[in-house]
Design brief:
The protein folds into two domains: about 1-150, Glutaredoxin, CATH 3.40.30; about 165-320, Glutathione S-transferase Yfyf (Class Pi), Chain A, domain 2 (Up-down Bundle). The chain is built from ten helices and seven strands. A four-stranded mixed sheet has the order 4-3-6-7, sandwiched between helices. The chain is globular. It is α+β, with helices and mostly antiparallel strands and about 325 residues long. Helix 1 runs parallel beside helix 3, helix 1 (about 60-70) packs across helix 7 (about 230-245) and helix 7 (about 230-245) crosses helix 8.
Length: about 325
C-alpha cells in the first residue's frame, strides 16, 4: 500500500506483528462535506469536483456507482488509476481502462495528497473527492462521499437512496456489512496467524448467511427499496468469487453457493448504474498483482477464472411480487 512520511513516499505494507496477526485498517483523514447550500465550505455545484477512483478498489467502486445512480456523470469528472499498486502506490501510468490525472497532472496519487496538504502523513487511498475551486481534497472517506452524492449536490436527479424513514434500518445493516463483510474479507486476507484468519473467516460467513437469510423475503437489504446499503454490499459481493475466494482464502463457500445472494447479486449487476461500473480485468489485476499482496500471491499470477455469467436471469422479481408490489 505505502504511505507518506515526512513528505516522502514509503513503500510499506500493514504491520500485524503487534495485533496478534490481525489486520487493522486506518482512518481516513480528509473528512469535509459537500452541501447544497455551501454552508460546509463546499457547495455542491456541477463541474466543481473531481473524483479519483480505482476500478479494483471496492471502496472507490461505491462512489462510482452512486455517481451513476444519481446521474452525476456530467457533473463530477473522474480519473481512474492503474490497477497495479506497485512501489509508488496508485499511479496514472497507462493501462487499458485507466485515465490520466486531467486536473492536477500528477503521475502518482500521493502527489495529489501532497498538493492538498504538503505535511500530510499516512496512507494514500482511493477514492478521493477533489475540489477544483479551492484546490484541495474534500474527502477520502467513501462512506461519506456516497452520502454527499446522494443529497449534497445541486445537480443530478432527486432519487433518495438514504430516505429518512429507513435510516435506522440502513445504518444497522451497514454496520454489520462493513465490519463483517466489507472489512471482513480484508481481515481474513491480510491475517498473518491461523487464529486471526479463522476468526475473521467464521465471522465473515456467519454475516453472509445472515444477509442471505434476510434476502429471502425482500428484494433488497432494506425491504423492496434500493438503498446505499445495497451499494455498499454489492462492491464486495462482485469481487468475492473472482478475488476473495482464492487470494484471500475466503473459501468456505462461493457467493454462487448461497441460496439468495447469487440472484440478488445478478439483480444489482443488471440494474443501470451497477454492471457498467464493473471492470473484472482491473479487479483481478488489483488483487493478484500488486505490492500489497506479495506475501499472499508472491508470483503475481492472475487466475483465468472463475467464469460467472452475471447477465443470466436473476428471478428476484418473484420476491418483489410476493411482497405485494
Amino acid at each position: 500500500m505505502g504511505l507518506l512520511v515526512g513528505g516522502k513516499w514509503v513503500d510499506q505494507g500493514y504491520d500485524t506483528s503487534k495485533t496478534g496477526g490481525r489486520f487493522i485498517g486506518t482512518q481516513s483523514q480528509f473528512r469535509s462535506f459537500v452541501t447544497r447550500d455551501g454552508s460546509s465550505g463546499f457547495r455542491g455545484d456541477s463541474g466543481r469536483y473531481h473524483l479519483y477512483i480505482s476500478y479494483a478498489c471496492p471502496w472507490a467502486h461505491r462512489t462510482l456507482i452512486m455517481r451513476s445512480l444519481k446521474n452525476l456523470e456530467n457533473d463530477i469528472s473522474i480519473s481512474i488509476v492503474n490497477p497495479q499498486l506497485l512501489e509508488n502506490g496508485w499511479t496514472f501510468e497507462e493501462f487499458e481502462g485507466s485515465t490520466p490525472d486531467t486536473v492536477n497532472n500528477t503521475k502518482f496519487l500521493y502527489e495529489v495528497y501532497l498538493k492538498a496538504n504538503p505535511e500530510y502523513e499516512g496512507r494514500v487511498t482511493v477514492p478521493v473527492l477533489w475540489d477544483k475551486e479551492t484546490n484541495t481534497i474534500v474527502s477520502n472517506e467513501s462512506s461519506e462521499i456516497i452520502l454527499m452524492m446522494n443529497s449534497g449536490f445541486n445537480c443530478g436527479n432527486d432519487r433518495d437512496f438514504y430516505p429518512e424513514e429507513k435510516k435506522a434500518e440502513i445504518d444497522e445493516i451497514n454496520a454489520l456489512v462493513f465490519d463483517k463483510i466489507n472489512y471482513g474479507v480484508y481481515k481474513a486476507g491480510f491475517a498473518t496467524t491461523q487464529a486471526a484468519y479463522e476468526e475473521a473467516v467464521i465471522d465473515l460467513f456467519n454475516a453472509l448467511e445472515a444477509v442471505d437469510q434476510r434476502l429471502e423475503n425482500h428484494r433488497y437489504l432494506v425491504g423492496n427499496t434500493l438503498t446505499i446499503a445495497d451499494v455498499r454490499l454489492f462492491t464486495t459481493l462482485i469481487r468475492f468469487d473472482v478475488a476473495y475466494v482464492g487470494n484471500f482464502k475466503c473459501n468456505l463457500k462461493r457467493i454462487e453457493d448461497f441460496r439468495n445472494l447469487p440472484e440478488y447479486l445478478r439483480d444489482l449487476y443488471q440494474t443501470p448504474g451497477f454492471g457498467e461500473t464493473v471492470n473484472f480485468n482491473h479487479i483481478k489485476t488489483g488483487y493478484y498483482k500488486n505490492n500489497n499482496m506479495k506475501n499472499i500471491n508472491p508470483t503475481g499470477i492472475i487466475p483465468l477464472g472463475p467464469i460467472v455469467d452475471y447477465a443470466r436471469p436473476h428471478n428476484r422479481d418473484r420476491v418483489y411480487e410476493a411482497a405485494g408490489h
